[in-house]
């Protein structure tokens, strides 16, 4: 989105933002997605495109009440998602030194909602800051949100968050609701990523074992561990989620 649309740290031309978002959404027709701008200072969306198709025909509410409305759709296992994640997210941002506050990407995966028509949604979102102040702090992110219910196991009742930043996205912070621990390490280990990249390159288990000088059983154990950790249905979903969240 065009940062030139900002005037004195506020969005000056919302309709031009909407035009850009509509163009982007038209390019990904066929997916269950919504695009928008999120105000982190007031914790509310200031623009949504495709929201009615995504969230359904919800009653009209004010912008200030929008997040309360969306929170009301959370499944009961996720009722503490907003408080837990915002507390963690705020702490992470405060820890990032000035020189590392570049190329920030924020990913949320696995939060479950139940729409008014009883349709289940398992949410993936990617947030990218679109305007920084002189200290490289941001108030607004451009958000892409997609329903990934088809990629996650039905019995996986957790969510995870990944933040990457730095010139080459070399710094990572993660949060997994299963243990609620803040980590400066990625969700997947270096070895797991190595194996997953080979899987993504269409190598079978035997080929991977030979290339890495490990046993076939070890490859299989790593694959199972990654699937269980991320909560995805199968290897195909594992590769897709790792790519969507920048892990490989």
Automatic annotation (TrEMBL):
Domain annotation HTH luxR-type: ranges: 181-246
Stored SUPFAM superfamilies: C-terminal effector domain of the bipartite response regulators
CDD domains, sorted: LuxR_C_like
Signal peptide: none
Key words of the record: DNA-binding, Transcription, Transcription regulation
InterPro entries: Sig_transdc_resp-reg_C-effctor, Tscrpt_reg_LuxR_C, WH-like_DNA-bd_sf
Alphabetical list of Gene3D superfamilies matching this protein: Winged helix-like DNA-binding domain superfamily/Winged helix DNA-binding domain
Protein name listed in UniProt: Response regulator transcription factor
Species, as recorded: Flavobacterium paronense
């Amino acid at each position: 989105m065009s940062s030139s649309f900002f005037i004195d740290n506020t969005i000056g031309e919302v309709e031009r933002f909407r035009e850009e978002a509509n163009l982007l959404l038209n390019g990904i027709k066929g997916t269950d997605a919504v695009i928008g701008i999120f105000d982190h200072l007031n914790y509310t969306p200031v623009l949504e495109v495709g929201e009615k198709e995504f969230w359904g025909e919800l009653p009209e509410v004010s912008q200030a009440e929008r997040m309360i409305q969306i929170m009301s759709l959370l499944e009961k296992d996720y009722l503490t998602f907003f408080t837990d994640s915002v507390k963690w997210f705020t702490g992470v941002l405060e820890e990032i030194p000035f020189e590392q506050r570049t190329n920030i990407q924020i990913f949320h995966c696995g939060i479950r909602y139940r729409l008014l028509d009883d349709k289940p949604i398992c949410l993936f979102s990617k947030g990218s800051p679109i305007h920084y102040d002189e200290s490289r702090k941001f108030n607004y992110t451009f958000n892409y949100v997609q329903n990934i219910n088809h990629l996650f196991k039905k019995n996986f009742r957790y969510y995870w968050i990944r933040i990457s930043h730095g010139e080459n996205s070399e710094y990572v912070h993660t949060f997994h609701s299963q243990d609620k621990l803040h980590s400066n390490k990625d969700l997947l280990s270096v070895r797991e990523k190595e194996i997953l990249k080979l899987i993504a390159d269409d190598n079978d288990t035997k080929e991977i074992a030979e290339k890495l000088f490990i046993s076939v059983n070890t490859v299989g154990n790593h694959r199972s561990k990654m699937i269980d950790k991320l909560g995805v249905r199968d290897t195909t979903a594992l590769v897709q989620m790792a790519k969507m969240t920048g892990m490989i």
